[in-house]
Amino acid sequence: MKKALTAQHISPKRYSPGGGKRARDEVPTWTATVPYTVNKSQMANLTLYSVSAALILDTDGNRILAKYYKPPHGGLPTGTRSLHNLKEQRAFEKGLFDKTKKAGGDVILYDTYLVTYRHSLDLIFYFLALPSENELMVSTGLQTFFDATQLLLRHSVEKRTLLENLDLVLLGLDETVDDGIILETDPATIAGRVSRPKADTTDIVLNEQTLLYAYNRVKEGVQQRISAAL
After folding, report:
1. How far apart are CA 164 and CA 175, in angstroms?
2. C-alpha–C-alpha distance, residues 92 and 63, integer Å
């Protein structure tokens, strides 16, 4: 995109020593054209896409849960590793596990991706993002998903419990991240949206009361008949 820069120059008015005004010098107006180009790559990235993948691996490196998100506009930046097929994903996950299987860190740069992760007993939670993404935002997204999972699993975040409630965990992830966009950062809100509804015991209590009432009525009727017979 090219634009022209224009500038006008007019010499100042001059005055004679006696105070009389002299005619203003006639200087022609000039225009300068300076070409410049706007580099689109330097423009602000306005997309909300921030998470490239969400993973849960066990402490043997086996995949428990994995969701990969494609960028909404175009392909990956030049030099970024593609993770579009299962073979590439498995190879990436194996290398990532070898790099993060020891607890201690929480954010690393691995194979052209920003990785934030968290250990929990026999599980490791991961969020992947492009290196240009905000590290704090990605870490907040992971922490939100982990805290929501804790609420859904009643603070028992381990492999067996997670597999038994995998449907809730997947729903919790979808409430946290949708197509790579972090939607919610309140764990309680997420857990409230996907929790199984509590059983409604009102009908059960009423039925028991009805049966008990009917039993007592029959019992009283029998007693009255026995008394009358005597």
Report:
1. 19
2. 12
Name the DSSP class of 107. Answer: E
Tokens of 1: 């995109």
Architecture field, domain 53-194: 2-Layer Sandwich (3.30)
For residue 82, which amino acid is it? S
Report the alpha-carbon distance of residue 95 to residue 58 in Å, rounded: 14
pTM of the model as a whole: 0.65
Scan for tokens 């009255």, then name that residue: 224
- pLDDT, tens digit, 9 for 90 and up, residues 68-109: 998 876 666 766 777 888 999 999 999 999 999 887 778 999
At residue 30, what is the residue type? Answer: W
Helix, strand, coil percentages, rounded to 5, for the chain: 40, 15, 45
- The three-state secondary structure class of 182 is strand
CA distance 7 to 68: 53
C-alpha count within 13 angstroms, C-beta hemisphere, residue 192 = 6
The number of helix segments (H) and strand segments (E) in the chain equals 6, 7
Sheet holding 53-58, edge to edge: 63-68, 53-58, 123-129, 113-120, 107-110
